[in-house]
Structures are given as C-alpha cells and as structure tokens.
Amino acid sequence: MINTKRKFIPVVVGFVAAWAPSMVSATEPSGVHWPSFRGPQASGVADGFKTPTQWDVESGHNIKWKTPIPGLAHSSPVVWGNRVFLTTVVTENANPQLRVGLYGASPDNPEPFDHEYRTLCIDKHTGKIIWNRLAYKGIPKVKRHIKATHANSTPATDGKHVVVSFGSEGLYCFDMDGTQLWKVDLGYLDAGAFNAKEIQWGFGSSPVIYENRVIVQCDVNNQSFIATLDVQTGKEVWRVLRDEVPTWGTPTVLEHDGRTQIIANGWRHIGAYDFATGHELWKMTGGGDVPVPTAIVSDDLIYITNAHGRQAPVYAIRASATGDITLGEGKTRNEHIKWSYNRRGNYMQTPIVYRDKLYLCRNNGTMTCVNASSGSIIYKKRLGGGRTGFTSSAIAGDGKVYFTSEEGSVFVLDAGNQYKLLAENTMGEICMATPAISEGVLLYRTRSHLLAISDTSE
Fold this sequence. Notes:
Largest sheet: 5 strands, mixed
Distance between the termini: 55 Å
C-alpha cells in the first residue's frame, strides 16, 4: 500500500508519457509534425534541424515569439504543419492555486465554481491565436491536486482531427479549423489515490490517434479500461476492462513483426493489447503503485519505468513478448525481458532514448544515462541543486537533450558518452508541461505563456 501522506500526482504529462501515440507516415517531412505527447512515436526526438542551445527570455535572444495563454494547464503543445494546438481551463480566479516543488503532502483542491475547458490553435510562425474554442463549461466533477490542473492531457492530431481529453468532462474532436465534430462522455474518471478515495488529483492520460482510431487509457478508481474509438465519429470500436488502480500514463502503439500492439503502463497490469481486437498479447505485474510515465520503444525494445514504492523498476522488454512475462523472485531478466533494474525508475518523467542511450531523470533531478541495449550505466549526474522538482519529460534533437525543472531551468546536455552541460537557460516561469520540437523550434509552455525558441545565429 502507498503512503498517502507522501503521495502526489501532478501531471502527465501526459504527463507524463511511446511508439506512435500518433504515427506519422514515412512520406511526411521528418522533424516538422509533433502530433501528440512527446511527438512522433512519443520518442521525444526530432532530428533534421538545428536546435538552439542558449536563449534568454528577458532580452529576447533566440525567442521567436511569446504568447500569453489564459487559464491553467499542464498539457503539452502539439504541432501539425504550421499550427500548434493546446488546451487550457479558464476560471474567474485569475491566479488559481498551483504549488510545485519537492514535497510529500497530497492535497486536492476543491473549486466549486464554473470552469471553461478550451482548445486553442496557434500559428507556429507568429504565435498568433487562430482560434479558441469552448468545449465545456461547468463545475469540475473531480477535484485536482494543487500541483496538477484540469487540463493535464495533451491533445493528439493527425492533420485532419484534433482530439482532446478533459477527463470526466469528456473527449472532444475538432477539425483543423476549430469546428467541433463530436463529443464522447467516457464517464466519471477519478484517477486519485486508490487507497484513500476521498483524495482526488484529476486525470492525466492523453489520447492517441492511430490508423483512424482514437485510443484512450482510463485507469481510474471506479473501473479501469482501455478503448478505441472511430476518429471520424467517436463511436466506440472496442473496450477492455483492466484490473488496475489509477494510472496517468499515455498508451503506446507499436508495430512489430506483423502485429500492432497497444502498450499500457501499470502496476497490477503492465501489458499490451491487440490494436484490432483488444485481445491481451502480454502482461506483467510489479513496479510503482501509481505509474505515470509512458512506455517508449527503440530498436525492438520496449522501455517501461515507474516509481512510488520500494521497487521503482526499469524494464527493457522485447517487442516479441507474449503471455505472462512477470519476472520471477530475485530475477532481473527472462526470455521476454532483456534487462531490468530496481530503484532507478522514474516517478513522473517519461524517459527518452537518443543515440543509443536511455536517459532516466527522477523527481529530484538525479539523472542516469544507460546503454539502451545492454542496460549498463554510462554515467549518473544530478541536475540542479536537488531542491527543485522535475516533472516535464525530456526531449532531444540535433545532438542535444533538454531537461526542464519545475522552476523553469532548462539543462541542455550533449548527447555523448560523457556528461557535458552545454547550457542552463531560465524560462522565468514555472514549467510543468513537456515541450515540443518542430523544424528545430522549441515550443515551451510555461505557467502563463507559450514560447517559440529558435537558433537565430544563421
């Protein structure tokens, strides 16, 4: 059982965090679209363009534009072509409570007044808001943690549709011009403490678009499930119930060796489902009791991590896994799990694989760089002074890896075999959302703004 006095779930980043939350066709230009949480294949990687190393928000150096965003949200920006999409929730309270940092309390935040749940479209080149649509207005059905928001889930787009999740307030689909196409009520989605159900935190898993279907993972207190819906109509294709406590991770889609699987992080049920039917392909039990990170895939290995609790594992699972792959007592590998560690896993951040290295960053900034294939540790380093939290998931491109603290410090690391800090940049505001990359431009959502950061040296 978890200790609820030490428990909190601020985000997800979607928060939290995959091979293809929204697959981009091989014919599409590389490094341009960032269609869902953590971009193409949820890898967090966008190569092919020069990305900035240093910038200064105050002086405007390498800041392409900075646009105020109303309300409070931790959802990440997504990009298709020249358009950026994100969500927010606006209230009569101009400064809603938000407490970041390393602390053990687990308070939720009652807000018994109307909230406006909105989706925005922004011009990628100018920062101008193209459209701003109201999806829902009302008193939230589920309270949020004071480190979270009512818009934690990142949108997904396929260039024709924009799908956004507001948890208990519904799943919505817009076209690229902001016309609402459909709405689906997924029910009462309480992703709060499983052993203290009076404590609520909100909802964080993000939708996925793949092959004209929307995939949602809804691990909640009343009844957990994973489902697919027709992206054109919102009609449910299939739904599979899960014996699972609340989780905040985003599902992952993997095509491998003739089968397409949807991978779901979990505690009681880490596993994969057949994309076409929902049939269970493989499963395992164990790990942190409130999983937040999204599974990621590289070179036919699935990387799953979670924390909160003593185990805090990292698993490198073969893409060919089938059946029950749970490790035996005292074992670190089997025919389906290539390698694993305990007590090195992430609580909030989705990890990243870049240039054959797996980067794992914990809440306090302790970062471990691991050989992605063998699991051998390359180096370990603490980012920051150990007094600030890290929730935003890392991104990478142009030979650099970007880690962002909750206080808004961005650590730019060289993606080599030794630790090399290239720069530390200050955003000047709280940063909880995972940034996006498009054509070498970094898109950072801070507490009150969306910023485009680019290298202007050429």
